[in-house]
Design a protein that fits this description.
Helix content of chain A: 40-55%
Number of helices of chain A: 8
Structural class of chain A: alpha+beta
Shape of chain A: globular
Largest sheet of chain B: 7 strands, mixed
Number of helices of chain B: 15
Number of strands of chain A: 4
Oligomer: heterodimer
Structural class of chain B: alpha/beta
Mean pLDDT of chain B: 95
Largest interface: A-B, 23 and 21 residues
Low-confidence stretches of chain A: 153-172
Distance between the termini of chain A: 51 Å
Helix content of chain B: 25-40%
Distance between the termini of chain B: 16 Å
């Protein structure tokens, strides 16, 4: 039960029951949808971007507590940020869920820290990143994306400088 | 487990099955495993694994090729497996039984061979709204290719196949093929195949049956039912993965072009032309899954010791018990027909808790179920939901496991802040 409480935190349950910024945006400049083919859930995201700044955002769709809370918190946090800042936040969020020894910074991640427990549930990380996939693809001007898309979940984080070769690669 | 349990007498023989399956003895997260995901995958008794081990250790050789001792033993075992499958489904002859990888491949085989040859533009393919994607996507693709049209059959309010709807849709006079599940993998509905086959044949349509659940939970008499094709998988009936079956009537198999071209499926090969072997080999290009076929045959022997009628009756007991217990969970809604009209599958949802979250919490309590659309998105759309929680039984499940499921559902309600009212 305690482990379940670590995952289903009060913050998550609160956002699940009372999602913020839920609905559609009539004057959106960017829109995307993310499908999670494993469960059939979908997150729709509308953004209104003016001068590189996200001035308004709404989301829709049905999903589990984790995907809905993640989307709700995301919309709260990216509203008012520049597109670049929003994408940077996406990277930090992704690192929190995927990097083994990542120490999340509450100043950067804010309420998103409530989703840290999802890290322990490999099968559910996709639920947590669904809305963020939609954000990424909306800003790229793509209308839809899937949680199975590789570049966000599986690709190694771009190494700075030269990439070290593995032992077997050196031999070749 | 649950002190309030009032479970009935468990026939000793069914109880023994769990002891035969080593996997069912394990724990997850420090709790005894309660395995209720049998519609996705059943667990293998030792007898099945041992039959395969015997092949791999003693006569692992290619079939229909070598003249040596091991190859002959392997060929005998493989062909005996085919005979065993044929008698399990009451096929007229072993040559009606094609070994495939699984039901999906079996259905693709029909789509790629029979349908490509015999479906013409404006022909109609009739299928039910509750089909698994494996009996839907291949038909979408082939319909696009040949210019045929998919027409859906809907359900009655009880979640049963609407036979009047079938009759109505057959009136177009264009239906060449009806393809339907024997038993829904989501709501458990048992389809009255006799009626469907009669309607189809009276109107000039052949009838394809997805038996992935039906063969495993109900058993089938393909000759008695007069179905044209029947597809099923080994791993849903105590067998291994990687082996499935397609039954086809001889007249169809004779008319159909081959599926995979290559070794094994030929009679003779020239530089520019080849001729084909007789069915079933005509459809089994390349070295088959010999070990898998032997495993499936052992699984069939195991099931036969209980009889499919007895298995169905046992699942009925579990279904009735589970229905009663699920009714005690506030906000829980079961989809589909009453227990006596279904096989051992129940899908449900609980108000205010998403199926994915229920599944995660159940998992932590040791209870394995499936959450999602169970490869039946159109059915979920039709039911007006995006996903559901599915519990599915097999012959080793027992009433106390249903009690554990109910306890775990109560934990889910507590985690989500609903005070338990029971």
């Amino acid at each position: 039960m305690s482990l379940l409480r670590d995952i289903y935190t009060q913050v998550i349950l609160d956002h699940y029951r009372k999602p913020r910024n839920k609905g559609e945006l009539d004057d959106a400049t960017h829109m995307s949808r993310c499908d999670n083919p494993l469960c059939g859930d979908k997150v729709f995201l509308w953004l209104k971007v003016e001068d590189e700044k996200i001035v308004d955002v709404k989301f829709a769709g049905n999903g589990c507590a984790i995907s809905q809370a993640s989307a709700s918190i995301m919309t709260q946090m990216i509203k008012g940020k520049t597109c670049q800042e929003a994408l940077k936040l996406k990277d930090s969020f992704r690192e929190m869920l995927l990097e083994k020894d990542y120490q999340p910074d509450i100043k950067v991640l804010g309420e998103l820290i409530a989703l840290e427990g999802v890290k322990k549930l490999h099968a559910r990380v996709k639920c947590a990143v669904c809305a963020w996939h939609a954000l990424d693809s909306a800003l790229k001007g793509e209308a839809e994306v899937s949680t199975e898309k590789k570049d966000m979940l599986s690709a190694p984080i771009e190494a700075e400088g030269e990439v070290e070769l593995a032992e077997w690669e050196k031999e070749i | 487990m649950n002190k309030g349990s009032n479970y009935k007498f468990i026939p000793r023989e069914f109880k023994l099955v769990a002891e035969d399956c080593p996997l069912l003895q394990r724990q997850v997260y420090g709790k005894p495993l309660v395995y209720l995901d049998n519609a996705a995958m059943t667990q293998m008794p030792k007898q099945v694994v041992e039959a395969m081990v015997k092949f791999y250790y003693n006569f692992n050789a290619n079939v229909h090729r070598g003249i040596h001792y091991l190859s002959e033993e392997a060929t005998d075992a493989y062909e005996n497996a085919r005979k065993n499958v044929a008698s399990f489904i009451n096929a007229p002859h072993p040559s009606n039984v094609i070994f495939t990888k699984n039901s999906t491949e079996s259905i693709n085989l029909i789509a790629y061979t029979w349908a490509r040859k015999f479906l013409a533009p404006r022909d109609e393919v009739l299928l039910s709204i509750m089909e698994h994607h494996s009996n839907l996507v291949p038909w979408q693709q082939i319909a696009k290719e040949v210019g045929a049209k998919l027409v859906y059959i809907y359900l009655t309010n009880d979640g049963l196949v609407d036979l009047e709807d079938i009759e109505k849709k057959l009136k177009s006079g264009r239906v060449k093929l009806i393809t339907i599940t024997h038993m829904s993998n989501v709501i458990g509905t048992i389809v009255p195949l006799e009626e469907v086959v009669k309607l189809g044949h009276d109107n000039g349509a052949i009838v394809v049956v997805d038996g992935a659940q039906g063969a495993a939970h109900l058993g089938v008499d393909v000759k008695g039912l007069d179905v044209d094709f029947y597809a099923f998988s080994g791993y849903k009936m105590l067998g291994p993965t990687g082996i499935g079956v397609l039954y086809g009537k001889a007249k169809h198999l004779d008319e159909m072009p081959p599926f995979n071209f290559g070794g094994s499926m030929i009679r003779s090969v020239g530089l520019y032309e080849s001729t084909w072997a007789e069915p079933a080999q005509k459809f089994e290009g390349g070295t088959p899954n010999i070990g898998g076929a032997i495993g499936l045959s052992a699984a069939i022997d195991y099931l036969r010791a209980f009889s499919m009628e007895k298995l169905h009756r046992r699942e009925q007991e579990l279904l009735h018990y589970c229905f009663e217990r699920l009714k005690t969970v506030p906000g829980l809604r079961i989809y589909g027909p009453p227990p006596d009209k279904r096989g051992g599958i129940i899908s449900f949802s609980i108000e205010g808790i998403h199926p994915h979250d229920i599944s995660t919490i159940l998992d932590r309590e040791g209870v394995a179920v499936r959450a999602g659309h169970h490869c039946a998105e159109p059915l979920h759309d039709y039911l007006g939901i995006s996903s559901s929680v599915r519990v599915s039984f097999y012959l080793y499940n027992q009433e106390y496991e249903i009690d554990a499921l109910i306890d775990a559902l109560m934990v889910a309600r507590r985690v989500f802040g609903y005070v338990s009212t029971t």
